[in-house]
């Protein structure tokens, strides 16, 4: 339900939008990894609408590099 609400609220990939590009979002990413913390998991302020390529590429690289959720 939170996923559907986020994608209804922000239907475009926020990463692409920041570059002036219009790409539909299909994944809801957690801006900060929740690491099992329920409040952070469901917090709409922690949700980011992204496309699958951004989630599986750019965001995963950031997480592996430790630049997210430090």
Architecture overview:
- The chain is α+β, with helices and mostly antiparallel strands and about 70 residues long.
- Helices cover about 45% and strands about 10% of the residues.
- The protein is built from four helices and two strands; from the N terminus they run H-H-E-H-E-H.
- It has helices spanning about 1-10, 15-20, 40, 50-65, and strands at about 25-30, 45-50.
- The protein is flat.
Question: How would you briefly describe this protein structure?
Answer:
This protein is α+β, with helices and mostly antiparallel strands. Helix content is 46%, strand content 11%.
> What is the ordering of alpha helices and beta strands?
HHEHEH
Average pLDDT over all residues? 92
Describe the largest sheet. Answer: 2 strands, antiparallel
pLDDT < 50 stretches: none
Task: Tell me roughly what share of residues is in helical segments.
Answer: 40-55%
Strand content: 5-15%
Distance, first to last CA: 28 Å
